[in-house]
Amino acid sequence: MMRDAVIFYSQFDDPVAWRRALQVEVPDLAFRAHPDIGDPQAVRYALTWKPPAGFFAAFPNLALVVNLGAGVDSLVARDDLPDVPISRLQDDGMVSLMTSYVLFSVLRYARDIPALERAQRRGEWHYIHPRPLSAIKVGVLGLGELGAAAAAALAHTGLDVTGWARTQKVIAGVRCMAGPDALDEVLGENEIVVILLPLTPETHGLIGARELALTRPGAKLINAARGAVIDEAALIAALGAGHIAEATLDAFNVEPLPPAHPFWGMENVLITPHLASITVPEQAARDVAKSIRRVRLGQAPLHAVDARRGY
Amino acid sequence: MMRDAVIFYSQFDDPVAWRRALQVEVPDLAFRAHPDIGDPQAVRYALTWKPPAGFFAAFPNLALVVNLGAGVDSLVARDDLPDVPISRLQDDGMVSLMTSYVLFSVLRYARDIPALERAQRRGEWHYIHPRPLSAIKVGVLGLGELGAAAAAALAHTGLDVTGWARTQKVIAGVRCMAGPDALDEVLGENEIVVILLPLTPETHGLIGARELALTRPGAKLINAARGAVIDEAALIAALGAGHIAEATLDAFNVEPLPPAHPFWGMENVLITPHLASITVPEQAARDVAKSIRRVRLGQAPLHAVDARRGY
Questions:
Q1: A121 at the B interface (CB within 8 A)?
Q2: How far is CA B181 from CA B175, B177, B184, B193, B204, in A?
Q3: Is A216 a residue of the active site?
Q4: Do the beta carbons of residue B150 and residue B102 sit within 8 Å?
């Protein structure tokens, strides 16, 4: 019997690491890194991040598409998706990285670091009496795998954490709210707001001028999700007016962020180049292997995506 | 019977918050904030941070000195200490704040933030592929109440954590080592080194030129303990040479850090004005009240300090 093959495509992820990690898990699987696709008939699985338009059409026997990341918005928005199960990556390494990014960026504000950095540039010993962490209110928008873990970790440090999602969740130590009215409340009551929402038609532009105006004066905003969840022009205005005091942004409407973009010139914005979280092949390959084994047996893959719902 | 009184002295801590917090815990205790000392005969307890020389001699009936902080080095070094039990503060608020400071400063390095900030100042989208947290080795020197909590929290994020103390400790998720030879090993094997040692005659200048030379090229150093644990001149040389790539410093030989100090001009040093952790009266007052009640009954206070050992 011909060995079945997986086709790999990504401009960010390392094919060598993925080949090695998958060979450990599924030794009888052939690994093809684009453009060395081998026999297209043998390719039954696609492991891809933003492949070019028409990519999937080359593989008539495709039985599974695995998205190389947690956010499937760019995948489900395509009009060339084959009619096969779609699965997204879920791995502990990705969760740990996102949690570490959120902990870093929230604690940076909770511990008044931007003000201290500005004082340091002036050569000034500027003591700021620390507030107890329990007096600092943090809202986390989006309580999927990444958001739930980040919210729990923030609560574990002693911060006062409220989470918000479309549907009601239960997370130890976190006050969880759901629905549109609750969103307004969460925006209005928290000093630090963290966005970890999936990008879907419902969340596209969800944080606009109206929502930014609802936040507390001097609020700090952290976006580790997708740029399009926020209305960038509205955010630029709110930052310029000082209503939003600080922002940490990992995702943007256009990436790389264009050289002339106003964010570059804003001293109260920390820009990170979309690296809050990435897939760690050694850990993620276990789940991908399980999905491949399940599809070989005619079963549904793990972490199936509902292409209509968008996540 | 005359009400017994506590005398409060600190240039940093808030007497109003302490008065309120202690009144909740020990309603029949009189609270005197220096210089309103009232009847010195009534003062049986001192709650102080760096009171002036000769301070204690004014109170002939003193039965307890509580140090308003975790580090008792400046207290036990005095030659005017009364011969009464000495107790140091231990409170969850202080532990949470220190843990939050250490999490922030370690994750800042683990997530390559200084390099991203420099790129941002150049207006450059500089992607740095994140390493899994488990591949980043962190050493924590000092495993007292603060060090142990910080080491455990770092391990909880997924970082690879080794702890070192004078005596052997056991902390879940942390490889614990003890003794002088192990110190050299911990310095040599960890990319990020966090100092949370008490200042004692043994730790004074413990991290000198020899110890800094033992660290990995490009190591990052975080000092949230006392300035004098590090030989500052040696650290300045190691930072200048780039052997130590980055430092986060909360404590210095002279505080406030003098305007002409070389640290101010170093782009690879983050200076915070000794605020990594402070006492939170509402939480700490419970322990202080317990110690006062114990001393009233002729018992030893909580968290007694061995003045000879120094902690």
A1: no
A2: 15, 10, 5, 16, 18
A3: no
A4: yes
Q: Which of A19, A226, A261, A293 is catalytic?
A: A226
Q: Looking at the partner chain, which of B123, B132, B153 has a beta carbon nearest the beta carbon of A93?
A: B132
Distances (CA, A) of A256 to A68, A125, A259, B7, B113: 19, 36, 9, 60, 17
Calculate the alpha carbon distances from B186 to B74, B123, B137, B223 in Å: 28, 37, 10, 15
Query: Are B156 and A158 within 8 A, CB to CB?
Result: no
Q: Rounded to two decimals, what is the model's pTM? A: 0.87
Q: How far A153 CA sits from the closest chain B CA (Å)?
A: 8
- B156 included as an active-site residue: no
The verdict on A153 touching B (C-beta cutoff 8 Å) is yes
ipTM over 0.90: no
The answer to whether A274 contacts B120, with C-beta atoms less than 8 Å apart, is no
Q: Which chain B residue is nearest to residue A106, measuring alpha carbons?
A: B104
Query: What's the rounded Cα separation, in Å, for the pair A34 and A37?
Result: 6
**CA end-to-end distance (rounded Å), chain A:** 36
Q: Residue B194 in 3-state DSSP? A: strand
pLDDT tens for each residue of B122-167: 999 999 999 999 999 999 999 999 999 999 999 999 999 999 999 9
Distances (CA, A) of B74 to B50, B70, B166: 7, 11, 20
Closest-approach residue (CA) in chain B for A128: B275
Can you give the pLDDT at residue A144?
A: 92
| β-sheet bridge partners, residue B249 | B223, B271
